[in-house]
């Protein structure tokens, strides 16, 4: 039974996690005898989120996992038939779905790679109906994880390599699964750990966290004071940071400092979640010079810069709402070749480049100089590296999944390879993306012929 | 085995879908012998997203489903133990989790109800460890669905009751599950249907959609022209709208109009996805006066108003990116009473009201005049209606889940009951929320005693 008002999502469901038109178009392709024509689609981002100079590609692992497992159950086909929408669809459509798997090739840039506008993160080469059908899911996973990885990379970049960056966004993430994917992309983008227990355990990491105001309020109400709450929590979690801003931050810090001086308590860290974080952190540092000071509360890369400029004494940042929500990465997935014929779109402001493409990155001394967007069949110059690699062949992944650590290192190297004007927060300038002569010729000849 | 790099989410996993500190605090409560103290937590929103005059409460169904099913497996407990984080936790913590279920009561406003800042959408009354543990998941589901339902209600409000509003956000939603929840909340908030096949089928609805540029490009490239693509799609889906902006919108409309006049084709609708939608829609209407015109492309409530003011001839709107992403609803979940003692927080800008509360809504002729935020034990005046109802008792739902249709009707009535200045997009003024004398006295006496 498909119907389920609670919207519980299982792996089996993923084949139906698509826009209706992907299925109606597939039926149309079958009817026209075009379903198996070799097609190539590319996934790219036309316009970046405001003030983003680069994007960090992320989400490929989940995309490949989806492609590998894609299939339809009889129950799903029945549910589709019962909608009545496919009354005029050819019978062969159903047998195609019934036995259908994803049998195509995928070329993609590695997760953790910096990319720029109009550069394909991924290309699917598959029978037309398959390449079309997978659009919605691929965009969903890559758009979101790329957004979060990029934000995480930006936060790491401004916070510096020694800052402790914690992912605290689960309560604000857009759905439970959204919180898992956010945690993965945040870690791969440069954060140190996540408070999300499930995400951490699934990724083989140790979850992290401090304590909440409610503990101070609950134990304080029953046992008498904020200090009783601190002592209680410290008893079971002696290395966990204490949250000291429930009532009077500085008063709490002063009392802790006295206990530390008197040798009554070993405090390793505190968290500040409200008030003037820069000023409070300086006072807390003077009272408790040897502890780790964490700050949280609607922080993002801009606020980290502001705090650092204000001389805040903050060692670690809890990053939540502004990391895991906000304006999206608006990736699109467009057909670039069908049956050997390059295609492009001419709609105003939404025109695309025709043909299967490759990104040739020109790098010197680990610094990106420029990119060249060319055709897939072009060869790289001696100082260039092609970024799109074959990651899935005939429906099977070419390599085993990478670890988060590997991807995190790649992200770090990617960001370090960018020019300062691309990394800066204010008015960043993207790395120049030159269009190859061959690609420009193809585009012009396409226009001349249409 | 918990570890799973693909982050597949199953219902079993939900107990670990929480911030680490919920579990460490639970262990601390056990150690202090406080785990079963009766506690009350309330979920509310301090500050609304920019320019929102009201919120439509949503996500309760998924919250209750989570509470009802909550339990820990041995495998999960083992994974937690293996982190080493709980080395000093009392042994009883593990037996508590092992046998633990949610056994508390929940009071909540019905889904589809308009609420204002600081009004509790939900109150959990349960043993302290349980009430604390569920915070993260409850916030996750209610924050997101409330955001989407509110946006959907705003879009419906400005588009008018006759407009066709379609949810097209899956490719931009934050994770696959995020897209399902977005579809649910959007329908319950006032949209007509969703393109998300899985969401539609799970909710017992018919999915909707048109066609994509890729079909025009693929069939056009092989069979020769845009018109061939239209004819092909029309053959199998004679009532589906045609997407006419791949090359030249007006030229495509003119050719379709000729076919319609000549009786060669029955066109029921078209979609415009780029260009000047107001101008194009007027021209298309003059060419094809009897068809349904859909528009899409980064539309939101502001853009709908702009299009209507520009005299656009648009019957239906495809709503995606700006419906399902963006700044979040920042709901919080705060302890308000422990062991019969009211609690509150005094941090700067983050102070809370103490005690278990009720919203008393004063309404006349189906119009909201004002709300009174009082204590739960206060009685309603004759012209007031209490909004928080008992929805879960001792861990069991009081009523079966509501249908989307029921919730959608409630949303519609809620929005209709708001004053015009609360509904408007520019500088909306929320309905006045008065603090009852009893609540204010409690707050003052709490402050006096601390």
Question: Would you report the number of β strands of chain A?
Answer: 19
The rough form of chain A would be described as globular
Biggest protein-protein interface? A-B, 134 and 134 residues
Count of folded domains of chain A: 2
How confident is the prediction overall: mean pLDDT of chain A?
95
Describe the structure.
- The structure is a homodimer of 450-residue chains.
- With 450 residues, chain A is α/β, with parallel strands linked by helices.
- The first copy, chain A, is built from 17 helices and 19 strands.
- Chain A has two domains: 11-145 and 327-448, nicotinate phosphoribosyltransferase, CATH 3.20.140.10; 149-324, Alpha-Beta Barrel (TIM Barrel).
- The first copy, chain A, has a seven-stranded antiparallel beta sheet.
- The longest helix of chain A has 25 residues, at 135-159.
- The radius of gyration of chain A is 26 Å and the shape is globular.
- The interface between A and B is large, with 134 and 134 residues.
Keywords:
homodimer, 450 residues, alpha/beta, nicotinate phosphoribosyltransferase, TIM Barrel, 7-stranded antiparallel sheet, 17 helices, 40% helix, ligase (chains A, B), glycosyltransferase (chains A, B), Nicotinate phosphoribosyltransferase (chains A, B)
Would you summarize the structure shown here?
Chains A, B: GO terms for molecular function: glycosyltransferase activity; nicotinate phosphoribosyltransferase activity. The structure is a homodimer of 450-residue chains. Chain A has 450 residues and is of the alpha/beta class.
């Amino acid at each position: 039974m498909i119907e389920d008002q609670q919207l519980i999502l299982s792996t089996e469901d993923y084949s139906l996690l698509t826009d209706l038109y992907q299925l109606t178009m597939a039926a149309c392709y079958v009817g026209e005898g075009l379903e198996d024509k070799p097609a190539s689609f590319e996934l790219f981002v036309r316009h970046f989120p405001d003030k983003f100079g680069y994007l960090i590609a992320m989400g490929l692992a989940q995309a490949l996992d989806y492609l590998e497992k894609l299939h339809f159950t009889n129950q799903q086909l029945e549910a589709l038939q019962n909608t009545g929408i496919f009354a005029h669809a050819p019978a062969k459509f159903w047998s195609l779905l019934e036995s259908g798997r994803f049998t195509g090739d995928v070329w993609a840039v590695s997760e953790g790679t910096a990319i720029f506008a109009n550069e394909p993160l991924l290309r699917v080469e598959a029978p037309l109906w398959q390449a079309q059908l997978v659009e919605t899911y691929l965009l969903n996973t890559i758009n979101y994880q790329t957004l979060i990885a990029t934000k995480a990379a930006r936060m790491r970049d401004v916070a510096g390599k020694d800052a402790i960056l914690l992912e605290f966004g689960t309560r604000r993430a857009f759905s439970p699964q959204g919180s898992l994917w956010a945690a993965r992309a945040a870690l791969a983008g440069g954060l140190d750990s996540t408070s999300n227990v499930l995400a951490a355990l699934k990724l083989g990491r140790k979850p992290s966290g401090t304590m909440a105001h409610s503990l101070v309020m609950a134990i304080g109400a029953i046992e008498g004071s904020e200090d009783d709450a601190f002592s209680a929590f410290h008893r079971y979690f002696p290395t966990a940071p204490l949250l000291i801003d429930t009532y009077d931050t500085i008063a709490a810090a002063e009392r802790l400092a006295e206990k530390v001086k008197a040798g009554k308590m070993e405090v390793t860290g505190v968290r500040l979640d409200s008030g003037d974080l820069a000023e409070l952190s300086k006072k807390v540092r003077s009272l408790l010079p040897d502890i780790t000071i964490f700050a949280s509360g609607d922080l993002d890369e801009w606020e980290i810069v502001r705090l650092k400029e204000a001389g805040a004494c903050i060692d670690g940042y809890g990053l939540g709402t502004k990391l895991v929500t906000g304006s999206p990465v608006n990736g699109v997935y467009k057909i670039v070749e069908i049956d050997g014929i390059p295609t492009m779109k001419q709609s105003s402001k939404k025109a695309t480049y025709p043909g299967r493409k490759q990104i040739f990155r020109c790098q010197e001394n680990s610094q990106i100089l420029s990119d060249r967007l060319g055709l897939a069949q072009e060869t790289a110059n001696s100082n260039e590296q092609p970024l799109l690699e074959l990651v899935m062949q005939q429906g099977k992944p070419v390599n085993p999944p990478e670890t988060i650590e590997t991807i995190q290192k790649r992200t770090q190297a990617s960001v370090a390879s960018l020019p300062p004007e691309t990394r800066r927060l204010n008015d960043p300038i993207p790395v120049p993306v030159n269009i190859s002569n061959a690609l420009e010729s193809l585009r012009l000849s396409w226009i001349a012929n249409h």
